[in-house]
Amino acid sequence: MIRPLLSLLAVALAAACTRAGAGGPDAQTARKIALSPCRLRGIAFPTQCGVLRVPEDRANPGGRSIDLRVALVPALARSPAPDPLFLLAGGPGQAATEVLGSIVTALERVRRTRDMVLIDQRGTGASGALECQLAAEDAPLQDLLSAEGFREDRILSCLRSYKTDVRRYTTSVAMQDLDDVRAALGYETIDLWGGSYGTRAALVYLREHGKHVRAAVLDGVAPLSLRMPLYFARDAQRSLDLLFDACAKDPACAGAFPDLRHRFAAFLERLAAHPARVEVADPLTGRPTTVTIEHDSFVAMLRAVLYAPELASLLPLTIDRAARGDFSPYVAQAVTLQRGFSGAMSLGLLFSIVCAEDAPAIAPGEMESVARNTFLGAAVGQVFERICKIWPREPLPESYREPVRSEKPVLLLSGELDPVTPPSWAAEAAKTLPNSLQIVVPGVGHGATVSGCVPGLVARFLADGSVAHLDASCAQSQSRPPFFVSFAGPSP
């Protein structure tokens, strides 16, 4: 997004290739990863990429290996701070070098003095992605809208296609990989930024390799007590309730969509009893197409839209139209989200993490109990239950799910409207992080780092390495985007 002059680019690249890598010895002796210039999606800054080979099974270092993709965005300073910022992507299943461009750009002030390092976690991106395409790129519209995407035969087909041992793709092993990268790049201590599942990864690194951590920023905090997908329905219901409350208090939204909460409940009841058979225009071809809209697929789309308040501002209008029999807005949003999800996630890693680390800690019947009286219900959770019955895994230590305790300074960021990691989870993590500060940003969904003054707060925190004097009052100026009362836009 920022395009430096070519001359500055050349100077920066030259400097990055010759300076010391952690304030220590010359880079060529400190770094064991050969780096060369590269371009990453969403990052216009000078960037270098390389590969570190690690064993797939750390108990058998002579066996199969994985090439981890590593990217380094050099600091602008000629003598950078010795503690770079390592950024951990979410999902689980997202590749850091593919999805964190907006974060790197937002943290431009951090880059002035600190290197930034991105690693495609094993099983994602260019680090042996465990891809699992459940719908082809040219799949019929009905397939994209179906609630049957995660069928057992499709999952088994993905498993058979892998040449990997999916039992070796857990968070703890990935954090051993990260520590190998740290050492190979010549850094003694590092700062961490993690988003969503990346906060779990950062917490695990903090627990298992804490002596190498200076400070951490956790955005959309998912502590180890958040057992995926047990609380998905409950936390999504909270987010939707906040949306209905806001619409009821907004004169334009309340006037356009009166009694929306109760109309929505009645609509879902009808849809559960009788799936809708409707004709819509295919968003890609424009051709009239007859499709069946099912309850489970409809509510799954709603949950996904709640992640971003900018998209959620369309939900009252989308719900109103669907309740009147017009599913075109829903179809357009669902297809866009489905294609984006399939292209951005390594589903095999998602299943490897959830089935090894979360599913074993969920008691029989607990999913249905927690999801009771929610719009999403237990369907999403039950999908994971079925998959985890066939997905290979090995037991983790009984202590794995214990709260992470650390004296290191930690900045906890929460979006007020987040449907998957609401502020309560950050508050829970803070109980065992005595040097932490939680900032709840109003009007923001899943991910607060790029919002308003938050990038500046992150930069200040990392510069000081402490939360003691961090004034976060500026973050309270954020607010929910206005609702669309028509497709022409929000009411003036």
Number of strands: 13
**Within the largest sheet, what's the order of strands?**
1-2-3-5-4-6-7-10-11
| Radius of gyration over C-alpha positions, nearest whole angstrom | 23 Å
Number of domains: 2
Strand count, sense and barrel status of the largest sheet are: 9 strands, mixed
Characterize the structure shown:
The chain is of the alpha/beta class. The chain has two domains: 6-128 and 164-225 and 403-477, Alpha/Beta hydrolase fold, catalytic domain (Rossmann fold); 132-163 and 227-398, no CATH class. Helix content is 40%, strand content 16%. It contains 21 helices and 13 strands. The chain has helices spanning 6-18, 27-30, 96-99, 101-106, 108-111, 141-145, 152-161, 171-184, 197-208, 232-249, 251-256, 260-273, 295-305, 309-312, 315-323, 328-344, 347-357, 366-371, 379-388, 423-430, 454-464, and strands spanning 36-40, 43-55, 65-73, 85-88, 116-119, 190-195, 213-219, 276-281, 288-293, 410-415, 436-441, 484-486, 489-490. The strands form three sheets. Strands 1-2-3-5-4-6-7-10-11 form a nine-stranded mixed β-sheet, sandwiched between helices. The protein has a two-stranded antiparallel sheet with strand order 8-9. β10, α20 (423-430) and β11 (436-441) form a beta-alpha-beta unit. α8 (171-184) packs across α9 (197-208), α12 (260-273) crosses α15 and α17 (347-357) packs across α19 (379-388).
